[in-house]
Amino acid sequence: MPVLRSREIPPVPPKPPKARVKVDPPATPTQGREQPATRLSSPHSLTPSPKTAGSVSGSAPSSLRRSLRLSSKGSSNAGDQVGLPEVEKCIGSLNGDVSKKRKLSVDVDGGFESGGSRVLSLRSGEKVTKRSPLGDGDVNGGGGGDEVVESNTKGKSIAESEYIEKSESNNENRKRRFSSEEKGKGKLVVETDLESKDETLVNGSVPDVEVPAEEVKSPDEKPSKRSNRGTNGGRMERFRDTARRNASRFAYFNTQEEEKEEEDNNNLSMEVEREIPSVEEQIEEKVAEDWPGPFSTAMKIIRDRAANLNVRQGSSSSGQVPSVKIKWVPQKGKGKDGSKRLPPSLLDLSLRVLVDNADAIASLDHVPDALRHKLCQMLCDSRRMDSNLLDLLLSGSPTEIRLKECSWLTEDQFIECFEKCDTSNLTVLQLDYCGQSLADYNIPSTLARSPISLPALTTLSLTGAYRLSDAGLSVLVSSAPALRSVNLSQCSFLTHGAIEILASSLASVLLELFVDDCQSIDAMLMLPSLKRLEHLEVLSVAGLESVTDKFIKEFIFARGDGIKELNLSGCGKLTDSSLKIIAEICSILRALDIGNVPKLTDNSFGHLASGCRSLESLKLCRNAFSDDAIAAFLEMSGEVLKELALNNVGKVGHNTALSLARRSRNLVSLDLSWCRNLTDEAMGLIVDSCLSLRVLKLFGCTQITDVFLCGHSNAKVEIIGLKLSPLLEHMKSPVESPLHRTRQRVCHEKKHVLRQTDRRHSFVSYNLPVKVYRESTSNVPKKGMEIFITDVFTTDQKNEPQWPRLCLMLHATALSSSVPRALLNSRRY
Amino acid sequence: MKKEDTVKLISSEGMEFVIDKEAAMVSQTIRNMLTSPGGFAEAEHGVVTFPEINAVILEKICQYFYWSLQYSRGKETEFHIEPELTLELMMAANYLHT
């Protein structure tokens, strides 16, 4: 289980930070300038204002306030006590050189506009509808209402002029921002860059921009105002503008980061300054050209689709994003509960009874590994696993031990069990959450009894081994020279030295490395060792805060061309530049997890769509991507996708649904938990169109009703999360983990007898079965067997599990030695 | 029961169980044996031998087949399994894919 991080970002836009942003109502002439800002917040006490009046330094929220006020000052200066509406509009223009339709703003900004606008509407009047609340104002000349009808040309010209100004001021912005916010806003700056990048992008790409007519004034007024305040001051205005704009979007972020940032101010500012050049270049490129061609075209199509709808629908200032129409009619007369209840399989029934009577199990000999794993899994889930059963598992010369949860195992039990275990045939050892039992000092007596005690071990998983240090790992690894997959997640004692150890002994064999949540490992320090792993295919650094763009850049440059799976979830410092590099270099990337990386914007999708053509599994969680970007990505790359998780990607809506329905023929698993914008119709369309879909997760989607549940016509899909279904059954079993997949490939390469079957991944492509079959049954009449094999393959399309059955049968029969020949001989004719 | 509708399952001891074809089809393995093109002996004669499954287990399996048919027709009862049989039953069920 991942450690809860304080930086977990709440999906709901929090009010408090914005509350802090609130400015006082104007009481004096000086504060009259703040009027426009106050419309953004309910009246507060007067005290905060003088404090933040001029000081540039300070904590994030106050800087927010300050920037708001200052920007409003700037704008108000422009109008110089003009009436409120005008000033507001000026502000709108200041922010809103990118003002455009609300929908488009949703695309680009990726913040929480909806939340913000909601918040806004509570506080201020209808003026709010014209703007977005806190300085996401750049996004909406339209705001929630979106219906300020402006001439397109005017808007465009304004946009362009603003754009030019913006791009000029961008550089200055950035640098000034550093100095002004060095005290604490390092992050803000980077975000600013992203934001301005987005703006310029949008400016460039959006044809119909709506800007209030009055805003024409503002650019002219701005310079004058700027001169009023002196050269520095004028720039400060614009910087604070942008700061306000961006800061509000990340306000929640700042509040949590506040203390942290104040501690390592200098470090941050240094980092940020280093990052500037890359971001700058990026912005330059972005300015020059949008996302790579096809993606931008796709995006445009999708946006236009919605835009046309907008136009057609006329003014609908409901604040809701107008949704593309989805035509889906639920099937009538499906009958209760959708499909008929399938009887539980005999296997499941007997497993359940076995688990209930686990203490009565005398022996697990002859039980194939797949069944052992299933049994262990169920036992661990129900906490019935104990050392007796472990003894049974370890008796003989076991080949695989998979215990997904060893927290019940005490140290003594561990030593007792493993002391006498013959590990010479062990290929897979999984002792997850073994922290209580595994320590440096008991490894030599149990697992690493001799330098050749684990000769066949290819897969090792010791997650949660919090007492394992680099030295202990070194002893273990020296006994296991053939390791191909190492999972050391949550081993908090390990440092980059551990990776060095792995690199020195396993450089040429290691294929998979998981170091999720190893908090003592510094990513940059482990980089040199990582680069030495020649064949690394799977890397998981989830939850490592030290993973930065620089790390990704250097690692991918060195090893990216061989990487097949990458897990970067929770690496909060990553930005679009990392995705760009990944997309460019990792051409055979099959699985990517970028959940909980809040800084990623739609640009990432642009990169991914153009770069990673063979992406089969994409996992998002709490990302700020827009509906259109995801839809466009699916249009381009959806055919290959087998697994997609859009967990808590709140903006997912009808465009994504349409693209999923059209493109995702091969999608097997889909997670749309917490996607509240999807209606029954959208879900129905997705499920009925994605014919390969087997698993659909809908946690938190309370908007889905029986209209969908009973009305969809896909009999094979399993919907999890809506009603109370046994949850644990749907967690990924070890058999289906990437570990397993790679292991299968390893077996293929080494021509081992197939041990387990993974029904989801067709083996036909590996041609494995035929090889295995021939090797293991050499004295069987070939004719009968071969015919049987072809028969299996031909009916493979009709009955998918058929092949795995054959495999298991052979394996099972291989174990019980008397059987195989007799059985196979029966196929005579 | 007409001859055409039945299949004969033979256990390791040689005990023969004659059951409906529909019931036997609950097991994917048997279904494939009986319906696959290719002229298998099993399909032709309607006889399947299981040298590694003993009579007690095979009997239980046949009972499961009928129970499963009943269940899918709506009559949802409980299928009781004696604990002593469970391990072997599990392995046989795994083999038969049922």
Walk me through what this model shows:
Chain B: Belongs to the SKP1 family. The complex is a heterodimer of chains A (829) and B (98). With 829 residues, chain A is mainly alpha-helical. Helices cover 50% and strands 5% of the residues of chain A. Chain A has a 13-stranded parallel beta sheet. In chain A, β1, α20 and β2 (428-431) form a beta-alpha-beta unit. In chain A, α25 runs parallel beside α26 and α27 packs parallel to α28. Residues 1-5, 13-182, 184-230, 253-290, 314-322, 334-338 and 733-829 of chain A have low confidence and may be disordered. With 98 residues, chain B is an alpha+beta fold. Chain B is built from 5 helices and 3 strands. The longest helix of chain B is centred in the middle third of the chain and has 18 residues, at 55-72. The mean pLDDT of chain B is 89. Chain A binds chain B through residues 340-343, 345-347, 349-351, 353-354, 356-357, 360-361, 364, 366-368, 370-371, 787-788, 790-792, 794-795, 799, 801-802, 805, 808-809, 812-813, 816, 818-819, 822-823, 826-829, and chain B through 28-29, 31-32, 36-42, 44, 49, 51-52, 61, 64, 67-68, 71-72, 76, 79, 81, 83, 86-87, 89-91, 93-98.
**Helix proportion of chain A:** 40-55%
**DSSP summary, beta strand count of chain A:** 13
Instruction: Output the strand order for the largest sheet of chain B.
Output: 2-1-3
Assembly state of the chains shown: heterodimer
**How would you characterize the largest beta sheet of chain B?**
3 strands, mixed
Structural class of chain B: alpha+beta
General form of chain B: globular
Number of helices of chain B: 5
β-strand amount of chain B: 5-15%
How many strands, which pairing sense, and closed or not: the largest β-sheet of chain A? 13 strands, parallel
| Contiguous helical run count of chain A | 36
- What is the residue-mean pLDDT of chain A, rounded to a whole number? 66
Percent of residues in helices of chain B comes to: 40-55%
| Helix and strand element order of chain B | EEHHHEHH
Query: What low-confidence regions of chain B span 5 or more consecutive residues with pLDDT below 50?
Result: none
